[in-house]
Structure formats: structure tokens, C-alpha cells
Amino acid sequence: MLDKGYIDNLNGLYYDGTLFQRSADRKAPHNSYTSFKDIQKGAKEKGYELNGAPEPYAFLTKEEAAGLQGEPALKTEVSYGSDEYDVQYEYEATEEKYKRYSNGEQTVEHKSNKPILLDNILIIEAAHQVIDDKGRRKIDLKSGGNGYLLQKGKANEVEWVSKDGRITPVKNDKEVGLIPGKTWINIIPDDPGLVGDVSF
Question: CATH number for the 62-199 domain, one of 2.40.50.100, 3.40.50.720, 3.40.50.1100, 3.50.90.10?
């Protein structure tokens, strides 16, 4: 689909060593990086249009964020079926943000070692289908489904929809506001889904 021009794209394999560089401290193939400057350069070379920006998500005001209600979500675990990939979130009340851990190790910025602190955590379930003997999966990110939105130490049940190609939380057909800041989306299989794979 990409080769047929489905969407503007820059192929990291084609531009390996030019617009994309390999990091020596990670194993290939998961060590290819680019910069916005190189994306701009590649877009110009390919004749891609970079004017305009996507419509923003809906955001809460400070007053709305302060009045959030919901089930307590001070410690949350998301299971992917293996301790190696399971994720934990801990709410830091003084920062009013969540810390993230994977396999017991805190998620931090690579260079500064500063903790990644999150304002919104969206956990959604989507249909997963194993498509080959390597365990690769096809994940349905169009049909929507159930989810949890964690904010300010509280969890609320939401639904998610694909709106203009973006995963968007909704409730009663209305977009749910996010807290300005960092948002992390976790996509888990719908079997067993939220009930089996998420604990507070």
C-alpha cells in the first residue's frame, strides 16, 4: 500500500544512512532513527506537502481536570501475557502524573535518564489476529471498542473510535477531553480484554 502511494511516506530502508541513521547502542533492526529536519528534507525531495496540522484532540480546562471523578487508579498493571512485556503505572500525587514501568524497570528518557511522566493513559482493547508462525499480528485499529482512560489517579471506562485515523476516547458519542501533556496508548488483545488484562 505504501509503495502504491496510499499515504506520503519515507522508507527507512531506502534512506538508511542518509535520512535515517543507525544507533550503535541498540540492535538492528530496531535502531534506525530520523529527525524532523531529515523528514523535512525527505518530504521536499519527494514533493510531499507539509502545510497544515492535524486537528487537535479535545483538552480539559484546569478546572475540569481538577474536578475529575472516577475509580481510584493509583497502581495499574497492563498484562500482555508475559512478565517481560507487562507494564505498570504508578500515580505520583505530587507531580499529578503517572510513572511507567516495563518488566519492573522504570521508563526514562534515554539521554537524560529523567523519568517519563504521563498525564493520560489510554488502555484499549482491539481484535488481534496472529498471521504467521513468527507470531506477528494484525490488529484492528478501525472498528473501535472498549477502553479505560487514566487521569489524575482515576480511571474511567470509555469507548474508542478511529477518528481521522487516530485513536480517540469517547463517551456517549462525545470526545473525552485529555489533560494537556503526555499521552500513552496501550493496545491489548480483546480476548481476554480489559477484564482479564488490566488490574487496578
Answer: 3.50.90.10
